[in-house]
């Protein structure tokens, strides 16, 4: 039950308000002067204080200042009988949530109280969400004892507080998105949105639309104005993954955003401003892309203000046992299995494995082991069966390449044929698990709906509109 303190030297007001608010189901206390009010405030926890601005001993403003100083977790509504704007403005400046002018009727006091308490609940939830976000991406949940990872933690802590652009560079699965999230969670933007976008998934036209939005009538089908993520994430953080694949035309638009925060929605002549913090990631050598004229040099310099290199897992083998145990604990908890650990030779095998898919691959292997295991300890034999499946399975029917170009073509074919199949299967499974509800499927898969839909489009998967 919400607890309220009414502070007023007029007994009629104190008792009258008390009766009204008790009727409304609140737990109400009163104080007839400033020192009694402070005594009660320091002793008990109140959700809301209705505070008269003029008291015989201490002014309401001074009490308000004490509430702020002592960081008491309550909202304050100032009651002023003198109705001057100055009093009210002064009170609001000192952190009061609202003010009401005497004389007020029952309805006014009930409405003001309900509004303040509703806002207080929201503020509390927001604080809790911020804390959850912070805990999730706190360094305790990012495993890394290796000195290179510790240096990354240090860099992240330094850069998080600023609004600087960060470039995360590392192979796929090394944790770039996890570190981007950690930067956001440790920044002053933590209470605002973190939006991620994969530049690989979108065609240039879709990408421009997603980033900058469009105005009504900008193209066929644009039946209403829709904001892009630069507008939506203006107070938050925007994570652009696989930046090396960004279309050249969009690269120049991104450069403008980075230089002065300006952009234009598709079909609009109006320049808009964004304050979004930008974090980008790449698993390609951006300098090489610049040399190949596939990436703008000026954009590269703009993005390279604060580069963070995340080494592949094989270059930080000392972290493998810790990571393996971290995931073992997590998946054992999730599946309710009692698995005490890995045998020594299983751990040794893991440490010596190359992990081309980095931490993501290790995580997936441990998840599979936990699901399949019926024993208390995971042995080397069991592990090797599950690593072998990966190695034996899926060797594609591609002739051994003789030149570098053929090797590149083979790699492309391999990715298109095999990874495409995995991507399509992943989408179908997610959609069917969510009974055809695309929004839910995207949410469960940990993706933004727009990214999910773009991936569906790429594979020609059509949504069952009736169920979404
Ligand atoms: N140091 C770590 N501690 C705990 N979990 C980690 C760590 N590094 C990565 N992971 C986990 O591994 C998975 C892959 O990480 P993430 O998606 O951040 O990689 P990425 O580099 O962004 O990959 P990609 O380039 O393919 O997008 C995620 O589930 C992430 O939570």
UniProtKB/TrEMBL annotation:
Chief place where the protein resides: cytoplasm
UniProt keyword terms in alphabetical order: Activator, ATP-binding, Cytoplasm, DNA-binding, Nucleotide-binding, Phosphoprotein, Transcription, Transcription regulation, Two-component regulatory system
Residues annotated as domain Sigma-54 factor interaction: 142-371
Domain of life from the UniProt record: Bacteria
Location within or outside the cell: Cytoplasm
InterPro entries in the record: AAA+_ATPase, AAA_lid_NorR, CheY-like_superfamily, Homeodomain-like_sf, P-loop_NTPase, Sig_transdc_resp-reg_receiver, Sigma_54_int, Sigma_54_int_dom_ATP-bd_1
Keyword Plastid appears in the UniProt entry: no
Stretches assigned to the Response regulatory domain: 3-117
UniProt-recorded Gene Ontology molecular function terms: ATP binding; DNA binding
Pfam families associated with the record: AAA_lid_14, Response_reg, Sigma54_activat
PROSITE patterns: RESPONSE_REGULATORY, SIGMA54_INTERACT_1, SIGMA54_INTERACT_2, SIGMA54_INTERACT_3, SIGMA54_INTERACT_4
Annotated positions of the 4-aspartylphosphate modification: 52
Biological processes annotated in GO: phosphorelay signal transduction system; regulation of DNA-templated transcription
Cellular component, GO, one term: cytoplasm
The protein's name: Acetoacetate metabolism regulatory protein AtoC
Organism listed in the record: Desulfotignum phosphitoxidans DSM 13687
